[in-house]
């Protein structure tokens, strides 16, 4: 059965889309000898947008629970892509930063991410993309409430 077949629930299509996107990005990263999973790549992308975030903020942004974000950050730290620094105001909390190696791997991964994104949206016009984003944002909002 393909995702195009009528009768497949929208939630199943969304789950399949998400899995296929992750599989495609993981394969692309692997093909280019980049030691990242799609999840790790997403975390580095978020840190690339804004470094110095607390673990909790990253978890919220990435929709990860405490255990999931801890495991993810440990994997990135083990690969020397990130480091944690104690918050100046509250020493109990750490801020997360990219290392130079993290910046380099992110720079190497970005064209591949863009390539997979372009492939994912191939054949969709701007109106379809905007409408799809709006629908999915409503779905996300429903799940967050």
- Count every beta strand, where a strand is a DSSP E run of 2 or more residues: 3
Main sheet properties:
3 strands, antiparallel
CATH class: Mainly Alpha
Provide mean pLDDT, rounded: 92
Gyration radius over CA: 17 Å
Poorly predicted segments: none
Distance between the termini: 32 Å
**Helix share bin:** 55-70%
CATH superfamily: Winged helix-like DNA-binding domain superfamily/Winged helix DNA-binding domain
**How many separate helices?**
6
What characteristic shape results from the CA principal axes? Answer: globular
Percentage beta strand: 5-15%
Q: Please provide the ordered H/E string of secondary-structure elements.
A: HHEHHEEHH
Named CATH topology: Arc Repressor Mutant, subunit A
How many structural domains can be distinguished in the coordinates?
Answer: 1
Structural class: mainly alpha
Q: Record the strand order, biggest sheet.
A: 1-3-2
Question: What would you say this structure looks like, in words?
Answer:
- With about 140 residues, this protein is mostly helical.
- The protein has a single domain, classed as Winged helix-like DNA-binding domain superfamily/Winged helix DNA-binding domain (Arc Repressor Mutant, subunit A, Orthogonal Bundle).
- Helices cover about 65% and strands about 10% of the residues.
- It has 6 helices and 3 strands, in the order H-H-E-H-H-E-E-H-H.
- The chain has helices at about 10-30, 40-50, 55-60, 65-80, 100-120, 125-145, and strands at about 55, 80-85, 95-100.
- A 3-stranded antiparallel β-sheet has the order 1-3-2.
- A hairpin with a 7-residue loop joins strand 2 and strand 3.
- Helix 1 (about 10-30) crosses helix 5 (about 100-120).
- The longest helix is centred in the N-terminal third of the chain and has 22 residues, at about 10-30.
- It starts with 9 loop residues before the first helix and ends with a helix.
